[in-house]
């Protein structure tokens, strides 16, 4: 039997309708949820993602504004823009598109965004709160992955989840979220010895490496759930994940495609966090 494909595209469409309804309720209370995006430079991939975010906001009834600034902007100037957005009452979410040019410290930028508007869930305060199981903005890609698993009733409690990759925005936090769901979590990375011995134990395998065809069916046990977080361009310029899809499909129980898998869920959870932020802000004011 070949794997069931988890369509991020379909789940995203459904979830975005729910987000839209929540945005409409807020509008009825006099608040339009607002997202501010800062895009530094003209990298084509980043520009394309930002356009995707603008379109998704428009469709969900979220106000969005994109500040496109020169790659020459100084760190100081960028920090000033963030400070202004922190104080802007019409803005509930701030996203600075990563990566940033070398002369700007990503850490400094992230730490300057108010934790109450950090809809990416990258601020150390939100990461810390997630770590101790307190309410926080959850990082969008990990949040979307957990949402996809739950939508298929895939058992997390007691399951062995193996993560390949340990970035601050995907690998590390997705392991933390799965731990919060009572999974047993193992991290693999570039220095891991005997990786296949570990990945073959996985009930759920999350692949966030950034290398085309990194993972084939020899890495997995039969009926494992495989989540492909990779976004790579192949030699034909087509978007591909980290997983050899046709090979793994014959052995896995569930598999996510690229495109149409994790990517659309990432944007969806950004919309969710933005509306949630607007709700929290209104409740702080009105009680
Ligand atoms: N501050 C910040 N927050 C981010 O969330 C963030 C970021 N910086 N920098 C870059 C990464 C990447 N990322 C993606 C989001 C959606 C798709 C997506 O929707 N992909 C579609 C295809 C889109 C296409 O065709 O180009 C899909 O997989 O089906 C991909 C990648 C968010 N990121």
UniProtKB/TrEMBL annotation:
GO biological process assignments: L-histidine biosynthetic process; methionine biosynthetic process; purine nucleotide biosynthetic process; tetrahydrofolate interconversion
- Stated EC number for the protein is 1.5.1.5, 3.5.4.9
Q: Which residues bind NADP(+)?
A: 165-167, 231
Of the GO CC terms on this record, one is: cytosol
Q: Does the keyword Hydrolase apply?
A: yes
Spell out the InterPro entries in the cross-references. Aminoacid_DH-like_N_sf, NAD(P)-bd_dom_sf, THF_DH/CycHdrlase, THF_DH/CycHdrlase_cat_dom, THF_DH/CycHdrlase_CS, THF_DH/CycHdrlase_NAD-bd_dom
Record key words, sorted: Amino-acid biosynthesis, Histidine biosynthesis, Hydrolase, Methionine biosynthesis, Multifunctional enzyme, NADP, One-carbon metabolism, Oxidoreductase, Purine biosynthesis
Write down the Pfam families for this protein, in alphabetical order.
Answer: THF_DHG_CYH, THF_DHG_CYH_C
Could you state a single Gene Ontology molecular function term? methenyltetrahydrofolate cyclohydrolase activity
This protein's pathway reads: One-carbon metabolism; tetrahydrofolate interconversion
Q: Which SUPFAM superfamilies match?
A: Aminoacid dehydrogenase-like, N-terminal domain, NAD(P)-binding Rossmann-fold domains
Residue ranges constituting the Tetrahydrofolate dehydrogenase/cyclohydrolase catalytic domain according to the UniProt record: 6-120
Domain Tetrahydrofolate dehydrogenase/cyclohydrolase NAD(P)-binding, residue spans: 139-281
Q: Which reaction does it catalyse?
A: (6R)-5,10-methenyltetrahydrofolate + H2O = (6R)-10-formyltetrahydrofolate + H(+); (6R)-5,10-methylene-5,6,7,8-tetrahydrofolate + NADP(+) = (6R)-5,10-methenyltetrahydrofolate + NADPH
The record describes the protein's role as:
Catalyzes the oxidation of 5,10-methylenetetrahydrofolate to 5,10-methenyltetrahydrofolate and then the hydrolysis of 5,10-methenyltetrahydrofolate to 10-formyltetrahydrofolate.
Query: Subunit info?
Result: Homodimer.
Please give the family membership noted in the entry: Belongs to the tetrahydrofolate dehydrogenase/cyclohydrolase family.
Protein name as it appears in the record: Bifunctional protein FolD
Organism name = Alkalicoccus halolimnae
